[in-house]
């Protein structure tokens, strides 16, 4: 089915909108996928706060150029693109889990911001902890020095209280 010029312009504008709103995007070759596989993949991506779309390579390449992305050979053959709108590692995990154990599925690469990344870098990104876990780790790192400072300041008073208590238990009871 051929698209009219207006439809192509509308599709390119939609691609540009997705590109500006997403923090990262990953590309998968989908030639061996069934519609059931794609629907399952989309559902998992939605759970991660992302979207998966089949794109027209020529129009998508045009949208990439318009938005200032570097040129890439990634968009040859079939392309299924995942857009991470808030948590790139979560979408990378969805991609990594989807291709795990199936030789015919292959991540072509992607973009983190406007930087081109390889399929190996997508897998490395998938190994990162999720955003809530990273926030908790950061909070722990930030609060650790304050906790140690409070403990250090309180230690002399605690030691003095232990000495007074031991002395009071040792003294004979007046009776």
Shape: elongated
Distance between the termini: 105 Å
Predict the CATH topology of the largest domain: Alpha-Beta Plaits
**Order of neighbouring strands in the sheet with most strands:** 2-3-1-4-5
Topology, number of strands? 5
As a percent range, the share of helical residues equals 55-70%
Q: What structural class do the secondary elements suggest?
A: alpha+beta
| Rg, Cα atoms, Å | 27 Å
H/E topology pattern: HEHEHEHEEHH
List the helices and strands and how they pair.
Elements: H1 5-21, E1 24-29, H2 35-47, E2 50-54, H3 57-66, E3 80-84, H4 88-99, E4 106-112, E5 115-117, H5 119-126, H6 131-170
Antiparallel strand pairs: 1-3, 1-4, 2-3, 4-5
Helix pairs in contact: 1-3, 4-5
Describe this structure in words.
Helices cover 57% and strands 15% of the residues. It has 175 residues and is α+β, with helices and mostly antiparallel strands. It has two domains: 5-128, Alpha-Beta Plaits (2-Layer Sandwich), CATH 3.30.70; 129-175, no CATH class. The chain has a five-stranded antiparallel β-sheet, with helices on one face. Strand 4 (106-112) and strand 5 form a beta hairpin. Helix 1 packs across helix 3. The longest helix is centred in the last third of the chain and has 40 residues, at 131-170. The model has no long low-confidence stretch (mean pLDDT 86).
